[in-house]
Structure formats: C-alpha cells, structure tokens
Amino acid sequence: MKYAEIIIEIKAKEVDRVFCYIVPEKLEDKICEGMRVSVPFGRGSRPTEGYVIGISDKPSTTHTLKEITALKDEFPVLTKTSIELAKWMREKYYCTLTDCLQCMLPKFIWGKVVKYIHRGKNFAEGDNISKSAVKQAEVIRLLKEKSPLRRDFLRNEHKISYETLKSLADKNIIEITEQEESRDLYNTENSDPGLTHNPTPEQQRVIVSIISDFESNDKKPFLLRGVTGSGKTLVYTEVIAEALKRGKQAVVLVPEISLTPQTVQRFINRFGSLVTVTHSKMTDGERLDQWKKARRGQVSVMIGPRSAVFAPFDNIGVIIIDEEHEHTYKSEITPKYDAREIAVKLQEICGATVVMGSATPAIESFYRAENGIYKLLELNNRINMKMPEIYAVDMRDEIVLGNKSMFSVKLQNAIKQTLEQKKQIILFLNRRGHSTFVSCRRCGYVMTCESCSVSYTYHMKENRLVCHYCGAAEKIPEVCPSCGSAYIKYFGAGTEKITQEVNKLFPEARVLRMDADTTKSKDSHRQILNAFARGEADILVGTQMIAKGLDFPNVVLVGVVAADLSLNSSDYRSAENTFQLLSQVSGRAGRAESGGKVLIQTYMPENYCIKYAKQNDYISFYREEIEFRRQMKYPPFSHICVVLFSGEDEKKVISFLHRFAAFLDFYGKGKDYEKIGPGAAAVSKIKDRFRHRVIIKGTEEEKLKNYIFYCLEKFQKKENTKEITISVTMNPTYIP
What is the dihedral sign for C-alpha 40, 42, 48, 49? Predict the structure, then answer.
C-alpha cells in the first residue's frame, strides 16, 4: 500500500501542514509527486483539492486515514524544484505552503476545451436525411464545404442545437472531438535563429565569464553593470543560446513596464518558437496556455515579470534578471516574495546560473558585489561609443526670469530645434508614486524632517506636512523658512498637464501620451510604442514606463520635466530612485550614430544624485549613497520590518497598534532593535480602511523576523484582533 503526503488547498494557518492519505490501488501506477488530487477533508469529508508533495510506503501518522478520491490532472503540475522552493518560501516569507504553491500555478489549470465537428464514417449516407430535418441537412451541407467545424461556430452562426448534432453522431454521420484551445500571442515566423551575432571584445569577455560558470561547483549570482546601450541583451541571448545547446531552459525576468514588444521581439528573433511570454495584461486563458507549453517542454525560454521566476521548467540552466534594481521584483501581496531572492534560491536548489543586469544596480546589490557575495561584471562602453550630452537646468533661474511655464527656455528651444530637424523627443515626468512635497520655487528649499533626513509629505486632507518615518508633523509655512519667498507650496504635476502645455507651445507637433490612464486597455501599450516607432508622433510624453526597455534611433532629445518629484518623496531610497530613473531615461537618447541630448529640469542641481546622473557616474553616486546609508543605518547595514494595522474604526486601529508597540518594547528591551512610530501610513486610508504602522530596524534579518513574529504571537493570544488586519513586510521597497 502507498501513502501520499498532501497539502490541502486552504489558506489557513490551522491546516498549514502535511496530511497523510491512502493511495487507492487503482491510482498507484498513476500518482506521483507534484500532482493535484481530490480528497475528502474535515469532519464532513467534503471534496477538497490538494497537492501531493511526497509518496511513501509507510504512513506518517497512526490516525485513521482516508483515501484519495481522484487525480485532477494527467501530469504533475508542480516540479520537485517547485515543491522544495515552496517549503523554503513558507519560512522565508511567513505564509502558508498553500500560498506559496498557488503563486506558482496559473489561476485555472484546465484550459478552454473546443469541440470540433468532423465528417463521420457514414457521412456519405447523409443524402438520405429526411427533408424535414432541415438543421441536420444544413450541418451536412456545411461539412461538405469544410471539415472540421467548431461547435461554437455552428451554434452561434447557424443556430444548430446539441440535439441535432447528437442525432447525427448517433448515426456516425458526424464525429465530435475535443481539443484544448491554445493561443499564440507573438508571431515567430519572421525569426532568424541562425542570424550571425558579433559581440564586441568587451561583451565577449562577459559572455565567456558567465558560460564558464555553467560547470562551476561554486556558483554565485553575477551582477552585470552595463551602461545604457552597452548591449546587455546580446550578452543575455548568447548565454541563453549556450544553455539551450546543453539541453537546459532559461527564464528571463524583466520589469512589467519594460515588457515592451521591442524587448520580446529581440528574444523571438533569436530563439523563435522556443520563446513564450507571460504578463499581467494577458487573460487567464492566455497565461494558462503559456504555462502549459513550458510544463510540457514545448518551449525553452520564458520571458515575463517577477512571477515568471516560477516557470514550470524541469531543467533550468540560466535565470536572467534585467533591470535588477526595479522595485517591482518584490511582491506586495502574500507571499511577499522578492524574485531576486527566489532566483538565488533556485541557483542553490537546481544549480542554475543567475545573471542580474542593470545600468544602475540597486545599492544593496552593488554592496554585495563589493563584498564578494555576487560576482561583478561590467560593460562600460556603448555599442555606438556615444553617450548623450546631459545638462541640468536650474529652474530657480526661470522664476527669476519670469518664466512660469513647466518648460525652461532651454528646453523649449531644444524642442523647437529638434522638431525642425524632423527628429523625435521624449518628455519624461519623473514621478514615482503618489506623494507630493512642499518646496520653494525661488530657492529650491524643501521642507524636511530634521530627525529622519527625508522630506515631509503633504497631506491634503489635514493640510499639513507629515514625516512618514517618525510621525512628526508641521503646518505649511506661509513663506519659505530659507529665503522668505512666498513661492512655497506643494509641488506636483501630471502627464496630462504636460501634454496640454506642449500642444499650447508647439501646436504643429504630433504628441503621444503614455501613462497609467492611456494604457488601460489590453493592447494600448504596444499600440502607442509602435505608433511612435513608425514616426507617427514627434513627441512621446510619459512616466517611468517610457524610461527603459525602449530603443528609438530617431530620438535625439530627452527632457526630464521635474527631476525633483521622486527626489523629494518620503523614502530613504529617494536619491537612489531618482538617480536610476534619470540614468535610465537619459539612455533613451542618442541610440543611433547622430548622438543625443538630455535636459534635466531641477530646483536642486547641486544635489549629488542630479550631479552624478548628469556625469553618468554610477560609482561616485554609489560611494556617496552608501556612506549615507551607513550613517543612517539603512539597508544594506540593517533590515527593516513594517507592521501595518488596518481597519474601519481608526480609533481601534490606533489603540491596537499602540498596544502591540508595547509588546515590542517589552520583548525588545536591551536588544539591538530600533522602533520608529507608531504612526499613520503614507496612505492613511484606502477603501474606507484606516492604516497605521510601526517600523522596526535590526542588523540581522532572521533575528529581526523571529522577534517580530514572537511579539505578534504573544499579542494575538492576548488581544481579539478580528476587526483589524495585520500585515508584515520585511525590507519593503517603500515605507507604506
């Protein structure tokens, strides 16, 4: 007799354990690890789905056991690697095993089944159908013209009923078959896998270094720092090609906003039908199709955002993480995983080679490379050897000159000149998130919390300034505390407003806008970019979704309208985020031989992140930023945990949070932890639920996590917290 260890598909801590079931004799030869099953569960033995994570000859319990009812699929939906990874994720991200397993599977395992109607073996006898059987005769007539026909075509277009078809099938005049529908999202017919590729000597050195790691027993992730336009994608494709030659598979992660048709096409051009893609704009059915192709071994390269790291491959050889610095690689919903951490764990489990690439690596990543945790590789030269000329425009001078436009005189002149040259322009609004800040337009002074070295955030509802780190609050001054000017107010702008200004100043220009509002429909992202690539517009206005992954040779001018928007967010990463965005968007200019120009409009040109972005100097920026992190004990010199309480009654939320904070104080006494708050969250109310949080910093991640959850366990045993929701996030990409 065989026994199966099964995880029940219920997201509850109470049942987050392995249950033992008897494998009935009829299923012994079919069942295997990774399969979905139906089992009787609970006192009522209600039918419930589960996942087989192990099979043995002995039961793991002495309790009375129930039998598995049925197999849900003909093949295992989970690989052994997936199961091992899920067990690690449960401990790492403090969630249930079901949470982890479900994020590895598509929403629906069964796809849409299409019924087809064929000519049967007695089809020739269909001339003998009674004249009164009009619909049956119509089916025969249609099948004479074409066979097979889709069942839904006959039903919708010709009103053919199921009874009509059954009657014909019973006489073997027709045959009905079923077939799973599969959708091909990208045309791979024009691909050229045999195309010659000629890496530069610099690229070749990097490629050889990565490929040599394939056979290494001492694997470490590679961090590839390559300036924009240095040809990182060619490195990726060469490395993947070698992995495929060895019978391995590849996963390519890109930020959702970088998943452009251009990006995908580069891989399709090289690997053709071996490539599949997944992303959030696809339907559930489309994503299921791509998952099945990967699970069945019909494709070997999976491209997608963070969830693609769970590609159901059996033999992963290489995992590429492009734009590794992007915050979107960290999930904000349970399980709150980081795709970069998942990739590194997969390297440990299955020996895959991991390559993380960026022109502006995350500070933590470059710190790991400096300390030997990652292996550093660099591409310091553009393929065309021409970096764009970058200038910072001091917007304080524009105020003095009486220019109240969103565009400086220098940018206006540059736009005019570029339009006359019949070249293209990108206007970028450096906006990340929702926060607005208060600054002086005359001197550039920004209202900043003295205790936390971050800017205050303007809360319109309360009409006051709040620090999202320590909770300190101030009134908005009537005049600038620095220069006495009355030009002090909250600062904000939108792409719609920029587009209106462009149309007003340059009525002859053809303008496209790309932001969250204009890309809501399924294919709008692709349509806008394709139109711009075809030259149907002179100017593309957008947010960070146009800052990366794009290659338009005719773009010679990039204008950054408001560099200070992300610089003055209430986040310790604001300088890093700003430097990265400015560097990335600057890389869109001068991709062809004609070179390019970038104009960065700012009220703070002396700020080090603006200064080094202008010089295209990542290393100098890193040196200054890492010292700031060291002094302030921010990551990578500490770990941050945010515990967020939310509920419909704000008084109860605040009361519960303060009582929990008391537990933190009691159990953290004499320990190396720092508590900040409690205080209101950056967005203090969402969907009528109030949000307050406390921040805890510690030097060791595991100890910090154990301390937080120990305090939570003690707190929840004492308090009835059913009316509130508690969320815990380790090392968040931003402070909520």
Answer: negative
| Sequential DSSP letters for 8-69 | ES---GGG-SEEEEEE-GGGTTT--TT-EEEEEETTTTEEEEEEEEEEESS-S-SS--PBP-
What residues have CB less than 8 Å from 542, skipping those under 6 apart?
Answer: 426, 427, 428, 429, 495, 513, 514, 515
User: What are the start-end ranges of the H helices in 450-558?
Assistant: 495-505, 524-533
Measured CA to CA, the distance from residue 543 to residue 513 in angstroms comes to: 9
User: pLDDT (tens digit, 9 = 90+) per residue, 603-650?
Assistant: 889 999 999 999 999 999 999 999 999 998 899 999 999 999 999 999
- Banded pLDDT at 432 (limits 50, 70, 90): very low
* Host H or E run for residue 418: helix 409-420
Can you tell me which residue has the tokens 């994020």?
103
Q: What number of other Cβ atoms are within 10 A of residue 628's Cβ?
A: 15
Confidence of residue 590 (pLDDT cuts 50, 70, 90): low
DSSP bridge pairs for 558? 426, 598
What does the pLDDT read at residue 591? 63
Query: Which is it for the CA torsion 304, 307, 310, 311, positive or negative?
Result: negative
How far CA 667 is from CA of 323, 639, 670, 709, in Å, comes to 40, 18, 9, 11
The answer to whether the pTM exceeds 0.90 is no
Angle (nearest 5°) at CA 591 between 242 and 554: 125
Alpha carbons 518 and 526: distance in angstroms, whole number: 11
More confident residue, 96 or 449: 96
Query: Which DSSP symbol is given to 700?
Result: -
Query: Which residue has 């489990």 as its token pair?
Result: 349
* Contact between residue 136 and residue 167 where contact means Cβ atoms under 8 Å apart: yes
Q: Rounded to an integer, what distance in angstroms lies between the CA atom of residue 727 and that of residue 94?
A: 11
693 touches 642 (CB < 8 A): yes
Let me know how many helices (H) and strands (E) the chain has, helices first. Answer: 21, 32
574/327 Cα distance (integer angstroms): 12
- Burial zone of 36 (CB within 10 Å; 0-12 exposed, 13-18 middle, 19+ buried): buried
- Measured CA to CA in angstroms, residue 472 lies from 431, 490, 566, 678, 735 at distances of 24, 18, 21, 11, 15
* Distance in angstroms (rounded) separating the CA atoms of residues 207 and 209: 5
How far apart CA 609 and CA 634 sit, in angstroms, is: 18
